[in-house]
Model the fold of this input.
Amino acid sequence: MKTVRFGIIGLGLMGRELASAVSRWGHLEDIGVRPVITAICSKSLEPTRVGWFKENFPTITQVSADYREMLASPEVDAIYCAVPHHLHQELYTAIIRAGKHLLAEKPFGMDQAANAAIMAAVRERPDVVVRCSSEFPFFPGVQRIFHLIETSAFGSIFEVNGGFLHSSDLDPNKPLNWKRTVEHNGEYGVMGDLGMHACHVPFRAGWLPRNVRAVLSNIISRRPAGIDGGIVPCETWDNATLLCEAADARSGSVFPLTLKMQRIAPGQMNTWYLEIYGTKASVRFSTKNPKRLELLEYRGGKQAWQQIDLGYASAFRTVTGEIFEFGFSDSILQMMAAFFHEVATGAPLRPAAGCVTPDEAALSHRLFTAALKSQKNATTEKV
Done:
């Protein structure tokens, strides 16, 4: 089995999630590659957090506050980097140019200019595998949907709706954090934070947005700065609705594609959803009911939605029996498997089992930049 020495930059929520996935690697079957965490990096090096990593991963030999030390280490082959958006350009370009394979966080650059700089580094190093994080398409329901797409089961597609919703910012007393400032998050706001989750499947399916009419909302415009910090402006967009005219790369058909990203969606904890409507078949899937795929197949006569109870049918085989449930930690493990499979073999297991590519991330920047212009001018903008 091929071993890939793995470093993590950013020891917060997602850094620990991905590290935990490495600790579950034995859950995968016939994977042919194994990551080993050898280095961690965080500007703060908070002792409790560092202690958690070192206690759970005795293979770690380097702990640093400067990412350059990790890039200089011959004991690191690949890196996961989760830092605030304004740092993406500096760190991602440095990691790529150092020849380290990179699994990066969205939005893959704070804005289009930062993304262009990262894309230039990608073109300089075609030998380096660079991918962007997005977990939800690895749910079994979405893998089933990909199969329907690949087999043209929908017929002529005439509408697609997708989005990512949560209610984490509904509380007006929630203190401001870096995602609520343009300086650190960028002007995209919620689109930079959640947008790739909504875009991953449409982009991979070849449903390319031609234009966009965006409605962006800054619902809670002022928040506490922290303990005894007073009330300060909350600058970034809370919610975004993008209505696009999309073209199907396979058939050339044009249809409405609606993408929603909401930090303020009452009642939603963390919900990803997708709806596809076609002349031969339609589907609905949501992580709110992750075992359920709703399918309508039309062959003439009466129409009826089926509710299919999904098992653990993942892209990469695991030891889990198919009758059991699939969850978020499983989607993280599958995404990690997809990344390291590409590092080891140079190609995805199949298109539906691949992480977001740099080109797909660049397309999201074109879409979000056009959406900002659409909001500002109340116009439909070309993507």
About this structure: The longest strand covers residues 207-217. The radius of gyration is 21 Å.
